[in-house]
């Protein structure tokens, strides 16, 4: 069992905090943030995210529908219709870690390519020549998580230096944080309540028991600004205090 040094623990806590914030405030940027944040947490030559429709019932089927990558040239290449088709039809089944993941979809832990094959053997495969060789990449590690559409993966790649056990542990922790954020986005207040996006954020935090000071710190604004938002919320909802406002939020939740 690898023990993380204190500096890595602090970096992960910062990553998890920012992941939760992005999921709540900018949910459409979550996957982009995941690529950026993990690239800082585990230094890599490039990082990419595989979005899949694969479900728990069809784990043996490759079904990547979109790639997002730190390298936009790499992203455009991997998103081409021909490359996605080749991956789903044959390359995923040839790639050592991808094939393992397809056979065991519930094993979400970080998988290092070098634990499955040697560099020499991997260079003989079509999947290497088609996907990694054009970009000079040889060392990869991928980690999976359950997202809203099924099983997704994040891959870190380097040209030479392999990934350490400590970095695998960081990736496992990071994927857990991203998976939780992706499956549990900020509750949405129905449009009928006519709240602005910021007012909805404030109301959601009030409903969860946050004080004005705590909400102000989380949203990086002054406490007085939160009070003004609450005054507007009370007026729009026709309530007198934060207890009644919180009750309105809970009633309005879609679940």
Q: Would you write up a description of this structure?
A:
The chain folds into 2 domains: 6-183, Transcription factor LuxR-like, autoinducer-binding domain (Beta-Lactamase, 2-Layer Sandwich); 191-252, Arc Repressor Mutant, subunit A. Helix 1 (6-25) packs parallel to helix 8 (165-183) and helix 2 packs antiparallel against helix 8. The chain has helices at 6-25, 30-41, 72-78, 81-94, 96-103, 119-122, 126-132, 165-183, 197-207, 212-219, 223-237, 242-252; strands spanning 46-52, 64-69, 111-112, 139-147, 150-158. The model has no long low-confidence stretch (mean pLDDT 87). The protein is of the alpha+beta class and 255 residues long. A hairpin with a 2-residue loop joins strand 4 and strand 5. Helices cover 53% and strands 13% of the residues. A 5-stranded antiparallel beta sheet has the order 2-1-5-4-3, sandwiched between helices. The chain has 12 helices and 5 strands. It is elongated. The relative contact order is 0.12.
Write the layout of secondary structure elements.
Layout: H1 6-25, H2 30-41, E1 46-52, E2 64-69, H3 72-78, H4 81-94, H5 96-103, E3 111-112, H6 119-122, H7 126-132, E4 139-147, E5 150-158, H8 165-183, H9 197-207, H10 212-219, H11 223-237, H12 242-252
Antiparallel strand pairs: 1-2, 1-5, 3-4, 4-5
Helix pairs in contact: 1-2, 1-8, 2-8, 4-7, 9-11, 9-12, 10-11
């Amino acid at each position: 069992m690898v023990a993380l040094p204190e500096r890595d623990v602090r970096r992960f806590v910062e990553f998890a905090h920012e992941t939760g914030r992005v999921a709540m405030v900018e949910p459409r940027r979550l996957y982009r943030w995941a690529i950026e944040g993990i690239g800082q947490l585990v230094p890599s030559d490039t990082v990419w995210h595989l979005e899949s429709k694969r479900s728990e019932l069809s784990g043996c089927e490759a079904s990547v529908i979109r790639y997002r990558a730190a390298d936009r040239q790499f992203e455009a290449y991997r998103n081409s219709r021909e490359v996605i088709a080749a991956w789903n039809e044959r390359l995923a089944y040839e790639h050592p870690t991808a094939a393992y993941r397809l056979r065991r979809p519930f094993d979400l832990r970080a998988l290092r390519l070098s634990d499955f094959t040697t560099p020499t053997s991997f260079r003989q495969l079509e999947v290497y020549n088609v996907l990694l060789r054009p970009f000079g990449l040889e060392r990869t590690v991928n980690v999976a998580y359950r997202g809203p559409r099924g099983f997704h993966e994040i891959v870190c790649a380097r040209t030479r230096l392999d990934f350490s056990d400590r970095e695998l542990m960081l990736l496992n922790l990071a994927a857990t944080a991203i998976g939780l954020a992706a499956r549990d986005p900020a509750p949405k207040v129905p449009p009928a309540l006519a709240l602005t996006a910021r007012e909805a954020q404030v109301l959601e935090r009030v409903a969860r028991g946050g004080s004005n000071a705590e909400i102000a710190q989380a949203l990086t604004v002054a406490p007085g600004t939160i009070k003004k938002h609450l005054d507007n919320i009370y007026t729009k909802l026709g309530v007198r205090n934060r207890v009644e406002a919180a009750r309105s939020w809970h009633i309005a939740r879609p679940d």
